[in-house]
Amino acid sequence: MDAEREFRRKMLSEAHAERDRLLPLREEATQTTIELMRASTSRTDEPDLVPYLNLTYLLTIKRVYGDDELLAFALSLANWAVASIDEIAKITGATTQQIIDRYETQIMSAREAPDDEPA
User: Fold this and answer.
1) Are 70 and 61 in contact (CB under 8 A)?
2) Please, is 32 exposed, middle or buried when counting C-beta atoms within 10 Å of its C-beta (0-12, 13-18, 19+)?
């Protein structure tokens, strides 16, 4: 149990140090997240296109700004995802785990569905 506690302490310490290091990039990362959300959610009528739009954003950030900005953007995006799931849960009366389970089930079903594209 002591080794596990020490591991968690080290991970939290590293995460805290990285958060402090990336903090100056937060404002730009948040703005980039907002831009991505606007661009991608405007294309939900074409769900197959959305992953490509998102990947284009990620690749552009990495190529133009580098790994630190990409990490700051990923953190911002993850924070938005958590906040969005929490908001959906509050609005629907479901728990956050039920919302996640719903999407996970949809993803699993999509994987098992036969591919509509001809080979």
Assistant:
1) yes
2) buried
Compare 88 and 48 and report the one with higher pLDDT: 88
Does 118 map to a domain? Answer: no
pTM: 0.78
Residue 37 domain-assigned? Answer: yes
Asked, for residue 119, whether it belongs to a domain, the answer is no
Determine contact, residues 58/76, Cβ cutoff 8 Å.
Answer: no
Mean pLDDT confidence for 65-87? 95
Q: What is the pLDDT of residue 44?
A: 86
The total number of structural domains in the chain stands at 1
Take residue 42 and report the two structure tokens written for it.
């405007």
Residues of the domain holding 92: 2-111
